[in-house]
Amino acid sequence: MSILPYPIAVKAFADRLANSLLPASCLLCGADSGKELICPACHADLPPLPAQRCPLCADQTTHGERCGACLKDPPYFDVTIAAFRYDFPVDRIVHALKYGHQLAIAGWCARQLIAPLKDRAFDRLVPLPLHHERLRQRGFNQSAEIARTLAARLALPVDLDTVLRTRATPPQADLPHPERQRNVRGAFECRGDLSGQRLLLIDDVMTTAATANECARTLKLHGAASVTVAVVARALKN
């Protein structure tokens, strides 16, 4: 028996019934998508990553070898896993999460990463942290929202406390690529011992990889054995 007042209980039941009977609308085209955020037709059209890509940063290469940037200046993370290429309409999906506050998209994002991650071994998930001012303005950390669903599916803990973003920086998207590494230098702080830990660092998009690399540097300085970066989408340089 419900403990809710009768009118509220009836409304809750009606809402559940409607949700079970009526299909959802695809976020991209508006067609019926059942219980999914994106209908099968639109999902099939989402831009894939190239088959041949750098094993470290997931940028496109000719034969799947390390890219020139990773050869010249190897990143602190060990591998990058991405679900899609950052292009239309994936960019619209990510923007709807970050700036449209459509938090259901975070669950969809997490589900896209389950298959490439399920056979890899990790000790914990670390969402890329936001500075507290950015978190206050936005109201949520999209990386943490993705990590929560992903952690539940992978049966792993989410670490929201060990790594902090202690320095507010201008948005990376507003800066030329050469300035992005300098922009995030020293932006993260680790408040724990990560010795021997195999970490899965979660973010929504990787562009130049500067932010993920600086966070991975901090994690490695505090003992992390490996850092795998998992993102919904990877922006290709070319």
Give an account of the 3D structure.
Belongs to the ComF/GntX family. This is ComF family protein. This protein is of the alpha/beta class and about 240 residues long. It is about 35% helix and about 15% strand. Residues about 1-20 have low confidence and may be disordered.
Which stretches of 5+ consecutive residues score pLDDT under 50? 1-22
Q: What's the story with the biggest beta sheet?
A: 4 strands, parallel
Query: What is the average of the pLDDT values?
Result: 87
> How large is the share of residues in beta strands?
15-25%
Radius of gyration from the alpha-carbon trace, in angstroms: 19 Å
Helix-strand layout with pairing:
Blueprint: H1 6-21, E1 24-25, E2 32-34, H2 40-44, H3 68-72, E3 79-85, H4 90-98, H5 104-117, E4 124-127, H6 132-138, H7 142-154, E5 163-165, H8 177-184, E6 188-190, E7 198-206, H9 210-221, E8 226-234
Parallel strand pairs: 3-8, 4-7, 7-8
Antiparallel strand pairs: 1-2, 5-6
